[in-house]
Amino acid sequence: MMKTSLQSLLCLSSLLCCTTNRALSASLTVSPSRSQLFKGEAVSLRCEEDDSSAGWKLRRNTTRNTRKECDADWGISAGSSCKISVTFPSDSGVYWCESREGATSNSINITVTGGPVILQSPVLPVMEGDDVTLHCKTKTSNLPAGFYKDGSLIRTEPAGHMTIHHVSKSDEGLYKCHSSGHGESPSSWISVTASKPQSQ
Ligand SMILES: *[C@@H]1O[C@H](CO)[C@@H](O)[C@H](O)[C@H]1NC(C)=O
Ligand SMILES: *[C@@H]1O[C@H](CO)[C@@H](O)[C@H](O)[C@H]1NC(C)=O
User: Fold this and answer.
1) What is the distance between the alpha carbons of residues 163 and 161, in angstroms, rounded to a whole number?
2) Which of 17, 76, 136, 183 has its CB 3.0 to 4.6 Å from that of 145, i.e. a possible disulfide?
């Protein structure tokens, strides 16, 4: 009897220890997978979690308010996903997943424009060494355009798209495009991460 209760106590404490020590994690993915959307487009956000019982929910900061949960204000949620059926420029902001206990995922910047031009750029960080293609486009086609990084023209591309080969940390920055006759896209931040976790 004594032995069993000791065993169950040990069992319980190791359970508690491991439940509290386990790092909860989730990663946020978005579809369509780009940082800029035309007003009126739909967007779906998904928390890919390793433990659905942790209660991961989408939250966002916009210029209007902060930390607003999907259901409470701006989207339709289903489990740990959230959908905006019709976006407005006021949906521009930073989005992330947060567990009930306050653990957070990666965050994603989304910009919704009422204008005619977007820069199609990766919404998730790009791996060092990969190639990245940026498109300057209207709803229907690519535009001949100039591509800018941190305010300076880096390339003019008549076909409306530009590939950066073997991306490195120095390619990180704020990108936009401009097409004469159509106008300018919003700016989006492209971040670059190391290809492999550093090992000692
Ligand atoms: C959202 O806004 C809050 C309050 O200003 C801030 O503390 C938090 O860092 C912001 N979150 C992100 C992911 O930017
Ligand atoms: C979001 O945009 C801000 C400002 O452009 C930038 O500093 C930040 O790193 C971006 N966050 C992500 C996750 O790309």
Assistant:
1) 7
2) 136
Where do runs of H (alpha helix) occur along 22-139?
Answer: none
Nearest residue to 30 (alpha-carbon basis) of 3, 2, 60? 60
Share of the chain residues as helix, strand and coil, in percent rounded to the nearest 5? 15, 45, 40
Predicted structure pTM score: 0.85
DSSP for 21-74 reads HSPP-EEEEEES-SSEEETT--EEEEEEES-GGG--EEEEE-SS-SSEEIIIII
CA pair distance 134, 112, nearest whole angstrom: 17
Using a 6 Å CB cutoff, which residues line ligand 2?
107-109, 174, 189, 191
pLDDT digits (tens, 9 = 90+) for 11-62: 444 444 444 445 678 999 999 999 999 999 999 999 998 877 888 999 999 9
The 8-class DSSP code of residue 30 comes to E
Amino acid at 21: N
Q: How far apart are the CA of 10 and the centre of ligand 1, in A?
A: 40
Closest ligand to 61 CA?
1
80 token code pair? 């740990």
| Shortest-distance Cα residue to atom 9 of ligand 2 | 189
**CA–CA distance, 39 with 94 (Å, rounded to integer):** 17
Mutate-to-test residue for ligand 1 from 66, 92, 97, 191, highest number of ligand atoms within 8 A of CB? 66
The Cα 55–Cα 99 span in angstroms is 5
